[in-house]
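> agent: user asked for a holo structure of the chain below bound to zinc ion. Plan: (1) validate sequence alphabet, (2) canonicalize SMILES, (3) run complex prediction with ligand conditioning, (4) return tokens. Step 1... ok. Step 2... ok. Step 3 dispatched.
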Amino acid sequence: MRTYLYLIAVTFAVGLVGTKTAKAKQADRFDAFAVLREFDAMIGSTDETGVKVLVKIERQSTSLAAYVERNSDFATLTVTDALIFSSRTSVDGLRMTLCHELGHILGGAPRRDVPLEWDGPVAHDGRSEISAEGQADYYASLVCFPRLVRGHDHKAALAGNPVQSEIGEACDRAHGRGSEDSLICRRSAAGGHNMLTLVRHFQISSTTPSQMTAPSTITNSYPDRQCRLDTILAGSRCSQNSRPHQIRLDFDRAEQNECLSTIAARPKCWYRR
Ligand SMILES: [Zn+2]
């Protein structure tokens, strides 16, 4: 039987990483395995996912990568040890990376088309069962990350990783000054920025939102990096009452998968109504 692979990597690539050295550095920074256990527990805490998700580490890898493979009611989410133990990876950057990949599985519409000559599983409408890149980013900050970190000591988490004042102010405006959701919003923004610059630095910032308007919704490729950051920031700004409460979003109706507040809508640089 053919194994269906639908590899959708958040970051490809990239230089050789001395895993042993990186592990030594990592030990001083955070417990990556604890993050993976926490992520696994979040997925396992509900039977609403509708799909069994196995989280795997690819060992002795030299690529900073994370990807999902989906086969109807079963999905595997793989992250390489090179990514986990890279000295460039922050703890919230790792969380956002995991959340982005989970977003491909649970983020719902808009979804990707299937590749040419694809003979693997397809949804009822002939499209893939994999959420588009922009939707995976949005899901990461809208649904997954807040679930993952709620109840943490956010001030401690932010102590070594302060965010730009503009992000802090936007989070305060959206969620209330000093509230837990405002602190989660800051962490999500910083984690998203880290995820998007894991492989190399990009000139992206919360103060320079994309001016692009996509002619139609981008479903089969990545939006540009600034657009992706804008998407993560938008999801971070959605209040708890305005965000979807289910962990698995609607696979057919994209309009259901958005914050009820327009300040946290998916940006037009990739999503068109
Ligand atoms: Zn992706």
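> agent: step 4 complete. Summary for user: Residues 133-264 form one domain. Residues 133-149 form the longest helix (17 residues).
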